[in-house]
């Protein structure tokens, strides 16, 4: 082409190029034939010199096929993003008449060249953003692989017969795309990492082994994509990620692959499988295969051991970077793409087993989720995302220059100018400064995640060598005892014996090399933390007991190694409470809660609890009850730990402890009712009231739950009520049952979800003995039947129990109905003397059965002048005075009821003050003793004044008893 005769937009754009880039573009244009068709679109003509200047590859494609650019422009293909499936549709049309394998190769390569030209043009001209470019490159690869596979499969079936499974069904191959192809983030000139699988061994229609068929098919597919011909190459194919690597079979059956990952899968293969995606072949079978491999990739526990493996992998890459002098490599060098990927994938491996939202292949959505869940700071997510996008853009534009798999900054002066122009920088110096800034930010965030705490200052590790030597048995016993004695142990010999028994015990001896390494790294740090406590002997004993229970699950050792702050919190909590120590040993997944003291000592409000549980439950499969039960258990255990930690630290008042524990139980009960209803109604349909509306079902809380005074480990005293339903009706489902049967099974399902032991323990023990007629009565009652029982047959003690009763789950109409029944029963007029006698008699019976028989011990709950006396006086006052003062129906907790009893004139101000103060004091003691795993009994002289004051009030209120 004579440049002087070129269209004006082209000549103007050419003149604007830097001189060093103008010359190669002019040379390329001069090689273009004068009659070569040019795009009619002036915008495309104006873009041509810049695009060719930035990418020698684009000019080469245009010179090889002069009509391709005009066709792309005039068809409008340069001006739009392709809709989903466009590549496949175009390729299917191109391959429709192909009969020879050589023609298949030619068409695939020419198709790839045309579409790569289009993608590069849209990228370099600014018509497409990074997300479109990466998606387009991946879609193009998917289409080429899948259409080539389909063509080759049909051809091979004609030669070898159709491969069949044991049932005679035809089998197809599955192609898994790994790495950036799997993540739909393919580079401009990337290798494609593939794994081939097929459903099962067997024979083809012509008695050929399936293995032989799929091996031949795999070889043909690789040749179709990878082989260099006169038309070039589609993709370099890398099969080294398959099981056994280069020594493994090219295609493997699903059973063999599952067995391999079960028995021999390595840590780096977990990392690789995060991005695995079915890119071609049998999609359904491929998805099933990946689902079966999910437990190998994503562990059910928090897998901080993955951090060690990724750290080792990064160290290996760093050594290779130094060996090959790859400091300018934007992928592998410090602060490069790989470091951003490692950050995201570390969290995926660690937490993906518990958080399905992390099991996605795209990197940017993972970073967004991590920030949303406060797993990384918002500014870190912003830096990493922006840095990653910048690095991917520069990587793609390096590769688009010559269609080569390159990640290094160019050293050639012309190529440097190409990159400066492509990145919109004024000079090479400016470009390297911008790039360096992004890499430093990425490197800083990477080091926050990956630099091992023990490596941050290795010199500090030498400050306490004796603890390591003591643990490893390097020191003679006498010297080790001296070390422990000087560290503050009251009985250093016993402490040393305990360490030795643990170290040499069967559980530790059975550890793998990796597990033993983790334990050996952790123990000196733990001992150092223990000696900082006021009772190192006691704390060490509790910690050894805890570790003995979890040591075989070495991921928890990795968690503590990675987070020294968690170690300090663990020692603090275990030192403060053997209950917490046992709770953590029963539920080691809770160790993750120790990572952030800001949340550890801050229990959630009722609203926040509900939102948190909703978010967790949203991650579960709607029909997977086992998974939902585990989520509920972990949620409850984590929230109770927060309350206990805050209680132990004095961060919350004693009366709020029960409020928080009650809120947790109510939120859990509400979700359990929803789960149980959905399960039972899916099977039987729903029961209907007489008006045709779905009958409601509710849970009434009695006892400590009803009075908002739940303690650690309290049972739930509940009664199940439902709307009245017409006799002779049935539920609405395909398997209808009587409403009574529906409600009974619903209650049984609720109890099952709450109290069935699972790997995560139980939610709550459930006590339903307060239902009408007790254990001999029906598990559920209609509201009408409940009201009738309370009116006609209930004992006084059952009305006492009703004082503390609330409906905590169920619809508003049923709740209102229950409140009306409760109001009716509690506002009955009762003869005071008879009532006083009945309440007093029941209390005396309880004292004899449950109180302490020892003179040197006072039972806080059951002895005279204790908690139960206060509760019985409150219940007596409500039953006596509610008919005259409706305020006594307003609350169910003792403290606020005491205020109402004073307003009602049932108790004097002095009496209510004495009882309220005593009740708070007793409840605080109960909480503290529970955390210390001590019986709720104290020496009588510790509470003598309080007990005497309560007993005096009892004598005045209840008449004559206990006036000592």
Structure description:
The protein is mainly alpha-helical and 964 residues long. The chain has 6 domains: 59 residues, no CATH class; 218 residues, Beta Polymerase, domain 2, CATH 3.30.460; 147 residues, Four Helix Bundle (Hemerythrin (Met), subunit A) (Up-down Bundle), CATH 1.20.120.330; 128 residues, Four Helix Bundle (Hemerythrin (Met), subunit A) (Up-down Bundle), CATH 1.20.120.1510; 173 residues, Beta Polymerase, domain 2 (2-Layer Sandwich); 128 residues, Up-down Bundle (Four Helix Bundle (Hemerythrin (Met), subunit A)). The chain contains 43 helices and 12 strands. The strands form 3 sheets. Strands 1, 2, 3, 4 and 5 form a 5-stranded mixed sheet that branches. Strands 6, 7, 8, 9 and 10 form a 5-stranded mixed sheet that branches. A two-stranded antiparallel sheet has the order 11-12. Helix 35 links the parallel strand 7 and strand 8. The C terminus is likely disordered.
Key terms for this structure?
Four Helix Bundle (Hemerythrin (Met), subunit A), 43 helices, elongated, 6 domains, 5-stranded mixed β-sheet, mainly alpha, 12 strands, Beta Polymerase, domain 2, disordered C terminus, 964 residues
Q: Could you write a compact summary of the structure shown?
A:
With about 950 residues, this protein is mainly alpha-helical. About 60% of the residues lie in helices and about 5% in strands.
Give the topology, please.
Blueprint: H1 8-15, H2 19-31, H3 42-54, H4 56-64, H5 67-74, H6 86-95, H7 101-124, H8 130-160, E1 174-177, H9 179-182, E2 192-198, H10 210-226, E3 237-238, E4 251-253, H11 254-263, H12 267-273, E5 277-281, H13 283-297, H14 305-323, H15 337-351, H16 363-372, H17 378-402, H18 413-422, H19 428-450, H20 458-461, H21 465-472, H22 477-487, H23 492-504, H24 506-509, H25 513-530, H26 536-550, H27 554-562, H28 564-576, H29 578-586, H30 597-600, H31 606-617, H32 625-649, H33 654-684, E6 697-702, H34 703-706, E7 716-722, H35 739-755, E8 766-767, E9 780-782, H36 783-792, H37 796-803, E10 806-809, H38 812-826, H39 832-850, E11 858-859, H40 867-881, H41 894-904, H42 909-931, E12 937-938, H43 944-959
Parallel strand pairs: 2-3, 2-4, 7-8, 7-9
Antiparallel strand pairs: 1-2, 1-5, 6-7, 6-10, 11-12
Helix pairs in contact: 1-3, 2-3, 3-4, 4-7, 6-8, 7-8, 8-10, 11-13, 14-15, 14-27, 15-16, 15-19, 16-17, 17-18, 17-19, 21-25, 22-23, 23-26, 25-27, 25-28, 26-28, 26-29, 27-28, 28-29, 31-32, 31-33, 32-33, 33-35, 36-38, 37-40, 39-40, 40-41, 41-42, 42-43
């Amino acid at each position: 082409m004579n440049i002087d005769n070129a269209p004006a937009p082209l000549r103007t754009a050419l003149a604007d190029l830097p001189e060093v880039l103008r010359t190669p573009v002019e040379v390329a244009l001069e090689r273009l034939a004068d009659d070569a068709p040019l795009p009619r679109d002036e915008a495309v003509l104006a873009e041509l010199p810049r695009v060719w200047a930035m990418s020698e590859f684009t000019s080469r494609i245009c010179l090889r096929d002069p009509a391709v650019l005009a066709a792309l422009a005039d068809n409008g293909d340069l001006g739009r993003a392709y809709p989903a499936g466009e590549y496949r549709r175009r390729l299917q049309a191109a391959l429709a008449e192909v009969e020879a394998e050589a023609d298949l190769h030619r068409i695939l390569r020419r198709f790839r060249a045309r579409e790569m030209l289009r993608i590069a043009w849209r990228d370099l001209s600014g018509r497409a953003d990074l997300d479109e470019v990466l998606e387009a490159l991946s879609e193009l690869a998917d289409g080429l692989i899948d259409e080539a596979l389909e063509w080759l499969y049909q051809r091979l079936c004609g030669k070898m017969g159709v491969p069949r499974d044991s049932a005679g069904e035809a089998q197809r191959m599955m192609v898994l795309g790994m790495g950036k192809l799997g993540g739909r983030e393919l580079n401009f000139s990337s290798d494609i990492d593939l794994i081939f699988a097929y459903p099962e061994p067997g024979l083809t229609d012509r008695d050929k082994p399936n293995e032989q068929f799929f091996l031949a098919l795999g070889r043909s597919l690789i040749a179709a994509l990878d082989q260099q011909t006169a038309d070039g190459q589609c993709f370099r194919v890398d099969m080294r990620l398959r099981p056994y690597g280069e020594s493994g079979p090219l295609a493997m059956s699903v059973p063999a692959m599952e067995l391999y990952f079960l028995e021999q899968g390595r840590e780096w293969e977990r990392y690789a499988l995060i991005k695995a995606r079915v890119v071609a072949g049998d999609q359904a079978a491929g998805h099933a295969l990946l689902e079966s491999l999910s437990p190998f990739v994503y562990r059910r526990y928090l897998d901080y051991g993955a951090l060690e493996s990724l750290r080792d992998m990064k160290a290996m890459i760093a050594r290779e970077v130094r060996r090959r002098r790859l400091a300018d490599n934007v992928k592998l060098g410090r602060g490069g793409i790989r470091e951003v990927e490692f950050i995201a994938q570390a969290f995926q491996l660690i937490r993906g087993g518990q958080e399905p939202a992390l099991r996605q292949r795209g990197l940017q959505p993972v970073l967004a989720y991590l920030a949303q869940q406060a797993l990384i700071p918002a500014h870190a997510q912003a830096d990493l995302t922006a840095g990653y996008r910048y690095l991917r853009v520069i990587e793609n534009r390096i590769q688009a220059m010559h269609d080569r798999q390159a990640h290094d900054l160019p050293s050639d002066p012309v190529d440097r100018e190409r990159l400066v122009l492509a990145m919109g920088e004024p000079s090479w110096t400016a470009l390297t400064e911008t790039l360096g800034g992004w890499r430093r930010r990425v490197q800083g965030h990477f080091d926050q995640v990956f630099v091992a705490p023990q490596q941050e200052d290795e010199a500090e590790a030498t400050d306490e060598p004796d603890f390591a030597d003591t643990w490893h048995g390097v020191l003679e016993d006498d010297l080790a005892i001296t070390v422990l004695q000087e560290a503050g142990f009251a009985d250093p010999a016993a402490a040393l014996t305990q360490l030795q028994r643990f170290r040499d015990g069967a559980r530790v001896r059975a550890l793998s090399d990796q597990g033993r390494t983790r334990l050996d790294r952790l123990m000196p740090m733990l001992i150092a933390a223990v000696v900082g406590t006021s009772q190192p002997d006691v704390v060490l004993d509790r910690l050894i007991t805890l570790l003995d229970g979890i040591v075989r699950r070495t991921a928890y050792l990795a968690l503590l190694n990675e987070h020294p702050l968690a170690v300090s919190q663990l020692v603090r909590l275990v030192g403060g409470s053997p209950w917490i120590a046992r709770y953590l040993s029963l539920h080691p997944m809770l160790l993750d809660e120790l990572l952030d003291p800001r949340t550890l000592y801050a229990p959630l409000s009722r609203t926040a609890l509900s939102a948190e549980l909703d978010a967790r439950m949203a991650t579960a499969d709607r029909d997977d009850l086992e998974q939902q039960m585990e989520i509920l258990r972990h949620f409850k255990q984590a929230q109770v730990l927060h309350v206990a930690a805050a209680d132990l630290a004095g961060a919350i008042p004693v009366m709020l402890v029960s409020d928080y524990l009650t809120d947790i139980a109510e939120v859990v009960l509400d979700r359990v009712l929803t789960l149980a209803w959905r399960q039972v109604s899916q099977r039987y349909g729903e029961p209907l009231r007489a008006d045709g509306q779905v009958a409601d079902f509710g849970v009434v809380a009695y006892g400590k739950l009803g009075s908002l005074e739940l303690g650690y480990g309290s049972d739930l005293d509940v009664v199940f009520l439902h709307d009245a339903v017409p006799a002779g009706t049935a539920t609405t489902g395909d398997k209808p049952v009587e409403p009574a049967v529906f409600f009974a099974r619903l209650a049984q399902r609720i109890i099952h979800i709450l109290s069935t032991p699972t790997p995560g323990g139980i939610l709550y023990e459930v006590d339903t003995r307060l239902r009408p007629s007790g254990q001999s009565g029906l598990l559920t009652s209609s509201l009408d039947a409940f009201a009738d029982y309370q009116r006609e047959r209930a004992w006084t003690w059952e009305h006492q129990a009703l004082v503390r009763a609330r409906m905590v789950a169920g619809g508003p109409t049923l709740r209102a109905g229950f409140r009306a029944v409760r109001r009716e029963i509690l506002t009955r007029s009762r003869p005071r003397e008879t009532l006083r006698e009945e309440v007093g008699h029941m209390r005396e019976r309880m004292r004899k059965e449950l109180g302490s028989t020892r003179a040197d011990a006072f039972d806080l709950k059951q002895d005279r002048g204790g908690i139960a006396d206060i509760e019985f006086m409150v219940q007596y006052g409500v039953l006596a005075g509610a008919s005259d003062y409706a305020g006594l129906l307003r609350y169910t907790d003792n403290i606020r009821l005491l205020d109402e009893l004073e307003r009602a004139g049932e108790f004097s101000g002095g009496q209510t003050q004495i009882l309220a103060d005593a009740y708070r004091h007793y409840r605080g003691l109960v909480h503290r003793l529970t955390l210390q795993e001590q019986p709720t009994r104290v020496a009588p002289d510790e509470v003598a004044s309080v007990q005497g004051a309560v007993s005096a009030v009892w004598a005045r209120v209840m008449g004559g008893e206990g006036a000592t």
